[in-house]
Amino acid sequence: MHKYFIKTPWIAKKIFPFYVWSVPAEDNAVYLTFDDGPHPTITPWVLDLLKEFDAKATFFCIGKNVEKYPDVYQKIISEGHATGNHTYHHLNGWKTDDQNYVDDVLKAAQFIKSNLFRPPYGRIKARQAKKIVDALPTNNGKIIMWDVLSADFDSSFSPQQCLKHVLDNTVGGSIIVFHDSEKAFKNLSYVLPETLKSLKREGFCFKRLDEAL
Ligand SMILES: [Zn+2]
């Protein structure tokens, strides 16, 4: 048994309407998102592939990785993608005191200028979320969850299974999660090119989240 859903159940969306789970008005666009970078070799690999497919995406970066690899972060921006805040230390909100959590997000915000925020593991308390929405730039923070998990980070899945997670569950407006991280690369290196090929063939285009919200 896995401790997460590949496709976010409708009930979660109903209980937490305050979070962004998908972009319902869109019928031919999907939103690829990449968590946990930037990484010095994997992120540029992702960027080259996105360019090949004329795809735009959103990268939820960890503040300490941005501090470590500022050139890779700049490359994400200069190639026309959106970035979002994913805390400075990749904290689990359920296990972190509210003030420490918000401070960590604000520390990451020194390096990541974005009003998009994705909580690591999707785990955040409502109180923390409210504080972050107010604290992010323009006081208009958005808490971005997802609609479809590739589960690329989970080595108990084969690359083919991860691809099936994506293709079986994606609809227009889906927000799909991948990881530009070492742990996920065994799966990502297969799933990402195949996803781009298949979804493009089905008539989808790939947009940045901040264009839709
Ligand atoms: Zn993460």
Overall description:
The protein has 213 residues and is of the alpha/beta class. The protein has a single domain (10-212), classed as Glycoside hydrolase/deacetylase (TIM Barrel, Alpha-Beta Barrel). The protein contains nine helices and eight strands. Strands 1, 2, 3, 6, 7 and 8 form a six-stranded parallel β-sheet that branches. Strands 4-5 form a two-stranded parallel sheet. Helix 2 packs parallel to helix 8 and helix 7 (159-169) crosses helix 8. It starts with 9 loop residues before the first helix and ends with a helix. The mean pLDDT is 93. Bound molecules: zinc ion (ZN). Zinc ion (ZN) binds next to loops.
Distance between the termini: 34 Å
Sketch the major β-sheet. Answer: 6 strands, parallel
Contiguous runs where pLDDT drops below 50 for at least 5 residues: none
CATH fold-level name: TIM Barrel
CATH class: Alpha Beta
Number of strands: 8
Question: If you average the pLDDT, what whole number results?
Answer: 93
CATH architecture: Alpha-Beta Barrel
User: What is the string of SSEs from the N terminus onward?
Assistant: HEHEHHEHEHEEHEHEH
Q: β content, as a range?
A: 5-15%
What are the key terms here?
213 residues; alpha/beta; TIM Barrel; six-stranded parallel sheet; two-stranded parallel sheet
Provide a short characterization of the protein structure.
By secondary structure, the chain is of the alpha/beta class. The chain has nine helices and eight strands.
